[in-house]
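Milestone M4 deliverable, item 7.
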Amino acid sequence: MTAIKSTQPRRPRVAVTLGDPAGIGPELIAKLLSDPENLKKADIVVLADRSELASAAADAGGVDIPIVDTAGAHGVQLLDDGSAVTIPRAEVSQAGGERCLYQFRRALAMAQQGEIDAIVFAPLNKSSLHLAGMTEEDELRWFAKQLNFKGTTSEINIAGALWTARVTSHIGIEKVAGLINKQSTLNAIELLNRLR
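Output delivered:
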């Protein structure tokens, strides 16, 4: 028997979380998932409760999110956790932060098992995350701690050919000047150089 190699590259498999459940994140994700063009780019698995995703679709104007058994170009796979949580809208809350961290832990476990290639999440509320026990300044440092990663951690912004990395992020303006130095700036430059 001869194995036939596929000439088709494997599609990236991406886990998506809804971000802060009290904010605009769920609505933004619903709009992104309802666009067929986005489904052509990756196999998308959504980490949410079915009722959360339905509520997000309603908030996005009643968009249709195609849910399928196996993620692919025709729909997203919902990894329903069965929690049926209700988080008050437009409020900072421990419950909202706990929900985000819970979904992040699920996504990280999938990444560590090789089940996904990337994690995408919508906007978060740092105050809610801190109420839920996150001690790091932001979610990127939280991810780094969970993964025991000691290297440079930065948000990368891409606008066409322009790529930027941050020397500081998610801190009060009064702390910025004290954190900008030769080494921190060089770290951001080197990170961008490696990525490019």
